[in-house]
Design brief:
It is a single chain. With about 240 residues, the chain is an alpha/beta fold. The protein is built from eight helices and ten strands. The chain has helices at about 40-50, 90-100, 110-115, 130-140, 160-175, 185-195, 210-215, 225-235, and strands at about 1-10, 15-25, 30-35, 55-60, 65, 75-80, 150, 180-185, 195-200, 205-210. It has a six-stranded mixed beta sheet, sandwiched between helices. The two termini are about 30 Å apart. The structure holds adenosine-5'-diphosphate (ADP). Adenosine-5'-diphosphate (ADP) binds near residues 38 and 40.
Length: about 240
C-alpha cells in the first residue's frame, strides 16, 4: 500500500501538485487520469523517488520513504518511452539490470512467451520496433516480482494482440495482490483494467473512487463520457 500525505511539488513558482492526499491499495489497479500538464507524471515520479516533494510525505507499507532508496527494490516501473543502452540485446539488458537490482527473484518465462519475446531478446535494442521495446520494458517491470508496479501509458506502442496479452499479464499481477498504478489516455483501457480512478486537474484531485462509483455519479456507462463530464464541470 502507498500513502501520499499532503504532497506538494513546486517547480519554481509553479505549484504542480497541491496538497495531494491519496491511498493506493494493493490488489487493485489505480488509474491516474487527467489532461496534459495536470501533474500525473510528477505524482508518479515522486512515488518513484525521481522527484523530491516540496512538502508532504510518501509512505510505502507504512514507512516514510524519504532518503530510503531501498524501497525502490519493491517497484517495477514501465516508463512511457523505453530507453536502454542501444547496442545491448534484450538478454544483455536483463543481465545488466539483474546486476543492479538487489532482488534475487526473477521469473520471465510466462512474460517472454505471452508477449512472444523469445527471438527478440537476442537482437540489439536499437534494431527493435517501438512495440518490441515496449514489451521489453514490460518484461523489466514485471519479472523481478515487484510488490508495486507503475505503468505509464503502457500500451501506447503495442498492436491490438500484444496489448491484449499485456492486459492479461496486468490482471494476473493484480490477482497476486500487487499494487498497480496506471496512467493512460485510453479510457476504454482504464475502464477495462482499473478498480480505482484518481482524476487530477491542475495538481488537485477532483475525483477519487471506484470506476463504478464514477459511472454511477455521472449516470454514464462509458468512462470516457464520465471523465469528459468531470473535466467540463471543473472548467
Ligand atoms: P502530466 O503528466 O499530467 O501531463 P506533468 O506532471 O508532466 O503533467 O506536468 C505538470 C506540470 O509540471 C506542467 O506544467 C509541467 O510543465 C511542469 N513540470 C514537470 N516537470 C517539470 C520540471 N522538471 N521542471 C519544471 N516544470 C516541470
Amino acid at each position: 500500500m502507498i500513502t501520499v500525505k499532503n504532497l506538494v511539488k513546486n517547480f519554481g513558482k509553479n505549484r504542480v501538485l497541491k496538497n495531494i492526499d491519496l491511498t493506493i491499495e494493493s490488489g487493485k489497479v489505480t488509474a491516474i487520469v487527467g489532461p496534459n500538464g495536470s501533474g500525473k507524471t510528477t505524482l508518479i515520479k515522486t512515488i518513484l523517488g525521481l522527484v523530491r516533494p516540496s512538502d508532504g510525505t510518501i509512505e510505502v507499507d507504512g514507512k516514510i520513504v524519504k532518503d530510503d532508496y531501498l524501497y525502490r527494490n519493491k517497484i517495477g516501473y514501465m516508463p512511457q518511452i523505453a530507453k536502454y543502452p542501444e547496442n545491448l540485446t534484450g538478454r544483455e539488458i536483463i543481465l545488466l539490470i539483474k546486476s543492479i537490482r538487489e532482488s534475487t527473484e526473477y521469473n520471465d518465462e510466462e512474460i517472454l512467451s505471452s508477449l512472444k519475446l523469445v527471438p527478440e531478446m537476442e537482437k540489439p535494442f536499437n534494431n527493435l520496433s517501438g512495440g518490441t521495446k515496449q514489451k521489453i520494458s514490460a518484461l523489466i517491470a514485471f519479472a523481478f516480482s515487484p510488490k508495486i508496479i507503475i505503468l505509464d501509458e503502457p500500451t501506447a506502442g503495442l498492436d491490438p494482440i500484444s496489448s491484449s496479452y499485456f492486459k492479461d499479464l496486468v490482471i494476473k499481477q493484480k490477482e497476486q495482490k500487487k499494487t498497480i498504478i496506471l496512467t493512460s489516455h485510453l479510457m476504454n483501457e482504464v475502464q477495462e483494467l482499473s478498480d480505482e480512478i484518481v482524476f487530477l486537474l491542475e495538481g488537485e484531485i477532483k475525483f477519487k473512487g471506484s470506476v463504478q462509483s464514477l459511472l454511477e455519479y455521472k449516470k454514464e456507462t462509458k468512462l470516457e463520457r464520465a471523465i469528459a463530464e468531470l473535466m467540463s464541470q471543473n472548467n
